[in-house]
Amino acid sequence: MRVPRVGVLALQGDFACHAASLGALGVDGRRVTRPQDLDGLDALVLPGGESTTMLRLIEGQRLREPLERFLSEKPVLGTCAGVILLGGDSAPLPAPPFGVLDVSVERNGYGRQIDSFCAEIEAKAVGGRFPGVFIRAPRIRRVGPSVEVVAWRRSDGAEEASEPVGVRRGNTVGLTFHPELTSDLRFHRWFLAEVAGLDVPEAPVSGATTGTPAARGRS
């Protein structure tokens, strides 16, 4: 079985934690900083971080057009700032987002860094409840008709999970939380196996480590 090659945009943010999660699943995780780094990849992860800084660095590294081509053809997972880049609108930004997900995303939708929190989410795609880590997280305010909600969070005072925190359109997935900052690999495995259609080992690689809540990402 050929080992899948999955890139992680590594210009800024918590890309190392995603690379660790991919490695724990036996995937060949590769850092992407230049256009040629996209060659031969089966899928791509856009990590959490500072969305404004990421967009400036994408332009500076001449990655805009190569990423647009990749996003139109290959599977992509965006977390926190990554879902902002994938969305249709999120003002103010120094450059337009890529618009591959018909969603409106509010940057820092829950407040400042001090307002970061952990909350249980509901996601049938990964078998039910999942530990959500929200760090200066964005908020999905509108979901277009072409987009499926795959993860929900219970809003304050609500009896049931009602706020979308994970969306999917075809082979593109956007999450407002950080699955890479937990030891739970279910979202990464689901994206790789079910969304991207890649062959992933049945069990995590022995000795591999994943991210921890000590890492920090910002939208």
Automatic annotation (TrEMBL):
Active site (catalytic residues): C80, H178, E180
Name of this chain's protein: Pyridoxal 5'-phosphate synthase subunit PdxT
Family: Belongs to the glutaminase PdxT/SNO family.
Organism: Eiseniibacteriota bacterium
Pfam families given in the database record: SNO (PF01174)
GO cellular component: cytosol; glutaminase complex
NCBIfam families noted in UniProt: PLP_synth_Pdx2 (TIGR03800)
InterPro entries registered for this protein in UniProt: Class_I_gatase-like (IPR029062), PdxT/SNO (IPR002161), PdxT/SNO_CS (IPR021196)
One of the record's GO molecular function terms: glutaminase activity
